[in-house]
Amino acid sequence: VQLQASGGGLVQAGGSLRLSCAASGRTFRRYAVGWFRQAPGKEREFVASVTERGGSTFYSDSAKGRFTISRDSADGMVYLQMNSLKPEDTAVYYCARGSTGYSASDSNEYDYWGQGTLVTVSS
């Protein structure tokens, strides 16, 4: 399984970006997908996750109310819409496939990872 995260870039504070996660393999839809991020000098942290059918979503406190995770049942893509971005959102964002269909905030519950896409928010 290969995951590809894209959509990162440079944006001013208050702006928006939409990240996309594509994966090879037809079974991708059967698993939860999570977004994580890692800022320079910091540990990787959970951002959001969505269950296999997209029926349930979960967010970190920092993402709640500003970010929206979704998945397209037709093409299997998973998206992270990020609004009201802040400089502290600057990080490399990774999408990951869960080992089950259930969402989790623990990175150990994810077994395949994309290469990451850089999001830079300027003040």
Which helices and strands occur, and which strands form pairs?
Layout: E1 3-6, E2 9-12, E3 17-23, E4 33-38, E5 45-50, E6 57-59, E7 67-71, E8 78-82, E9 91-98, E10 110-113, E11 117-122
Parallel strand pairs: 2-11
Antiparallel strand pairs: 1-3, 3-8, 4-5, 4-9, 5-6, 7-8, 9-10, 9-11
Descriptive terms for the model:
123 residues; mainly beta; seven-stranded mixed β-sheet; four-stranded antiparallel β-sheet; 47% strand
Describe what this molecule looks like in 3D.
With 123 residues, this protein is mostly beta strands. 0% of the residues lie in helices and 47% in strands. The chain is built from no helices and eleven strands. The protein has strands spanning 3-6, 9-12, 17-23, 33-38, 45-50, 57-59, 67-71, 78-82, 91-98, 110-113, 117-122. The strands form two sheets. Strands 2, 4, 5, 6, 9, 10 and 11 form a seven-stranded mixed beta sheet that branches. A four-stranded antiparallel beta sheet has the order 1-3-8-7, with no helix packed on it. The chain is globular and about 40 Å long. The termini are far apart. 33% of the residues are buried. The model has no long low-confidence stretch (mean pLDDT 93).
Contiguous uncertain segments of 5+ residues: none
Q: Averaged pLDDT, please?
A: 93
Q: What's the tally of helices? A: 0
Rg, nearest Å: 13 Å
Total strands: 11
Brief overview, please?
The chain has 123 residues and is mainly beta.
